[in-house]
Task: inverse folding
């Protein structure tokens, strides 16, 4: 099993550019999440999904969008990149409530 | 608002000793609490989960306690090894967010030979 796969691993964007961070999982998990992690800070929840077709905002959703057309995929879209979005982004999934979360390896994004 | 606190200072211990990490929380009554390990440049990896009605959980050299009265969890690594050096994250369930987790900032552990 591959688990949770994120692409790309690294990316440099210019201010105002857009991009999509890809996330896919092969464990048939219903719950999927996007977090960002800044140096010295805990992981912050951006968006989450409880199943295909259902998404909702987390604590820091501004500047991001998501979609969940299939159980496997949960892409994160940045429309107008800003320096404040420089961070490491992690996608995660879990089978159900009260169970462990599986994380991808992360995408390190720099906006210049 | 919910707050999770972990020691911000790195913990340095000698190989073979027991490492004890602390997680305190306020304004919160979590149903369960989890501990994760994170290595530099990698995603968090699940270690242990403990529920509110459990006092203690063990897995090999790891032990977690959960005191809902004190609002505190302790994470122990016995017979520590240099390979245990990493950042350890405490995480609690996040109400009304699809069972997402609310993470502490983590405590860095360094085990020296």
Result:
């Amino acid at each position: 099993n591959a688990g949770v796969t994120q692409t790309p691993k690294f990316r440099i964007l210019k201010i105002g550019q857009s991009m999509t961070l890809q996330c896919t999982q092969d464990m048939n998990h219903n719950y999927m999440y996007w977090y960002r992690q800044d140096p010295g800070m805990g992981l912050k929840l951006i968006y989450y999904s409880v199943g295909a077709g259902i998404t909702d905002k987390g604590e820091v959703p501004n500047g991001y969008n998501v979609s969940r057309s299939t159980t496997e995929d949960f892409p994160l879209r940045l429309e107008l990149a800003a320096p404040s979005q420089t961070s490491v982004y992690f996608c995660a999934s879990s089978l159900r409530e009260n169970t462990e979360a599986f994380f991808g390896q992360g995408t390190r994004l720099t906006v210049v | 608002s919910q707050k999770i606190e972990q020691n911000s200072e790195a913990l340095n211990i000698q190989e073979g000793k027991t490492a004890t990490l602390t997680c305190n929380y306020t304004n919160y009554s979590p149903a369960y609490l989890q501990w994760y390990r994170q290595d530099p440049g990698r995603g968090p990896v699940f270690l242990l989960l403990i529920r509110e009605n459990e006092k203690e959980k063990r897995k090999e050299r790891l032990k977690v306690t959960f005191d809902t009265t004190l609002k505190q969890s302790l994470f122990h690594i016995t017979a520590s090894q240099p390979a245990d050096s990493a950042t350890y994250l405490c995480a609690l369930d996040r109400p009304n967010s699809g069972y997402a987790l609310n993470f502490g900032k983590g405590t860095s552990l360094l085990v020296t030979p």
In short: Chain A is about 0% helix and 50% strand. Residues 65 and 77 of chain A are 5 Å apart (CA to CA).
